[in-house]
Amino acid sequence: MTVKTMREALNDALHAEMARDPRVIVLGEDVSGGAGGTSGTRDAAGGIFGVTKGLITAFGEDRVIDTPISESAIVGLANGAALAGLRPVAELMFADFVGVSMDQIMNQMAKFRYMFGGKAKTPVVLRMSMGAGMNAAAQHSQTIYPMLTAIPGLKVVVPSTPADAKGLLATAIRDDDPIIFLEHKALYSRKGEVPDGEHLVRFGEAALVREGEHCTVVALARMVGFAERAIDKLAAEGITCDLIDPRTTSPLDEDTILESLSNTGRLVVVDESPPRCSIASDIAALAANRGFKSLKAPVEIVTAPHTPVPFARELERVYVPGPDRIEAAIRKAVKGA
Amino acid sequence: MQLSPAQILKAYRQMRLIRDFEERLHVENRTGEIAGFTHLYAGQEAIAVGVCENLDDRDYIISTHRGHGHCLAKGCDPKGMMHEIYGRADGLCKGRGGSMHIADLDKGMLGANGIVGAGQPIAVGAAVACKLRKDGSVSVSFGGDGATNQGTVFEAMNMAVVLKLPKVFIIENNGYSEHTGASYGIGSDVVRRTEGFGIPVFQADGFDFFSVHEAARQAIEHARSGKGPSAVYAVATRYFGHFEGDPQNYRAKGEVERFRAEKDCLMGFRNKVLEAALLDAAELDRIDAEIAGLIDASVQSARAAAPPPASAVYDDVYISY
Q1: Of the partner residues B122, B151, B316, the one whose CB lies closest to the CB of residue A108
Q2: pTM for this one?
């Protein structure tokens, strides 16, 4: 184990997988940066958040491809390269840019395997940064994953820790289905213990981050850390919770959530997305449908408001669900107040 | 380039195969046995065959909603295609794709695609794989005049130039983007527009197999030899509507009949090879008879084949909730 940031953990996984399999290529805007610049330095950026730093030095221009700002062509290129036998890891700088490339995501990569009778493999990993917390405003701060989770054929990965980020990215690159890999930009500098050497985390297996008796809390990405703070504070009062991080929103580890609910009888779901058709509403529906007999109280959902992400610090703080709101939701679920 | 008699005979066979396949589908569609949307390629055979006769098994193509001709020209099994169009369990895509999504990865056929302009960026990706393999393979996208106005095609063209990929863009102008004339939808000259990206365009008469074959040969040679992307521009016409059932109110009366009588690519091919004494009429007639039998057998077997079982809706997905 070594303490690393999530950025370093992701970078480790990319280096290791590219070294392991010559079919893995990396592409996107500024994944190395420096192409056509005046400094002559090719390893100039390593991605806007530094996740792909050093790859071009290690693996060369053929496998680390700086692209123009052409999101449809970036995702399309990844799709075609995958059909032709490569294992591309494409980067969209911001999850919001899914809007520019949605056809290639929704109508192409997600559907090849099924639509072509099971013969096509589409081993694409589409990495993107997501989430609020950097005052990046309405077009650079969305979570997007609920919308993508709704599309059959896509696997959607939402890591919350450096160790999971490394293990899930390695798994994603080795998977034959298209993967949407969302990295919360406020977590890139988060540090944690990361296993050295090969580390794989299976999809569809939730992490049980805290164990308790009174309430089940489900949270994703940055919300996991906020939920930990709320839960640890309540523990001092004798209220204890299971904290479940599903890690992948599809496949979703329904069993772990329902099993925990059968023990606690209460459920709080935390999602940094607007409420309608969110992961929070989806998991609440799961509880109502398959966990109804376990429920001792209404399911509480803690979400962003149904608004675009605002810019000003004061407004963004209101937008992002924080530990206080999670704490209040747990209290309400447990005590009815 | 001089083609051998065997090559000429094969080209004729491929064109005849596409023509009969499409003409028969036009008839069979009226029986109501074929579900969904069918877009026929008849009239444009010289383009698909003229291009694909320059390709081999290592090369890729990607097609459009009007894809049957490209699939057949790249070597997809006509019977498997017919079963797919009829939605049968043993169709090329197990009845889950249909007319608009026929693919055969084993043949380097990356799929007919229902989204206009979606195939070009995908073919750029296959060209990246070709370039990395260093085996001289190329990736070819077919697209119509309609697709030339999609931004995705502009992105794909620029990307192919920037990355200097072995990528060939085939631009088939059949005169209509669905129900709207190509002259209306294209605000400038397609050839000059493509050249503006830095892509050399090899122009061909889309009614003439030999013209297309030569232009495609030069374009493909350009891409194979590592000089970067190229394009072929060819004008032709489609004999049927945008989709089967299209009343074609946008076309002048007699337009199709005139093309059939004066410009038909199969007729022109036949006349040319007979005049030049490259083949004799009996050989061509034998092919006509063979293809007629093949198409008939394909339709009969597709009609009799079983549809997929209900459980197949859940096949080939990683999870169903």
Answers
A1: B122
A2: 0.96
